[in-house]
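To whoever is on call:

I kicked off a structure prediction for a single chain this morning and the downstream step that reads the tokens threw a length-mismatch warning. I double-checked the sequence; it's 275 residues and nothing unusual in it as far as I can see. Pasting both halves so you can look.
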Amino acid sequence: MDDNGFIIKDFFVDDVPVITCVKTGVQQKPLLIFSHEFRSKKEFFLEEMKFFAGHDFFTIAVDNKHHGMRKEPPFAAMCMEDGKFNVLKIRKIINDSAYDIPKIIDYLINTENLDITRIGLYGISMGGYIAFKVLTMDDRVSFAALFISSPYWNDIPPSDFFLNNETIRKDLEEYAAAESPASAVEKIKTCKILLQNGAADTHFNINKVKNFVALLQNGKNTNLDFFEYAGVKHEVTEEMKLKARSWIFRTIIKTGKREEIVRQQDNFNLIKGGK
């Protein structure tokens, strides 16, 4: 237990390295699962995990495939060819990582006192892509806060850091058609989703994301909230983090504790508007 009363544990669920953060004495805790961006690791989320654990969540972060403490070749060794990233290989790692999340949920349901009606995902970049895939696989997930990510898997960023040739594009299109979350819209519709992207992000096609949002919101579906930030590239801003906190509390917390978080977001908006 640390100085603030949090119980933090590092362990493996089968072959998946995880870190958990929780406070004792809380019954029927909602579960929040964190998934990191590529070339990061589970510990990246520790401060945000403490925040939510301090508000009665059970929090857990996962090392994605070929990251952190995984007993596998490192991410770069798996995905780079001639000094460039192969997007198809990245998408396959994303897909494989998604299959770990239901396994982790199974484990936690059997070992922790959780409110299984309130299971959520918190994913950034690669983690957001993973979360989108999980939403097509596991209907126990009831909410997801996603950052700088897309449900489309056939985009190649316009950068010299990524391989881009006819063979790669063809193979990527075929894989995306079979595995992309965008192909399973009906499975995603029932989950409450917050998606926040930067308007200047070139890691994916923002117009395709907007079309997906329009498709999901068709028929006045109120389960998806989408925010786009002018001038923001592939990054998570403080405003995005505060909005996610507020949104999660508005969405699932039914007690007065959520008001503090909602106030933080409202105050941020007032300060920003006054500049």
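Update from on-call: the warning came from a stale cache, not from the record. Cleared it. Sanity check on the structure: The longest strand covers residues 114-124.
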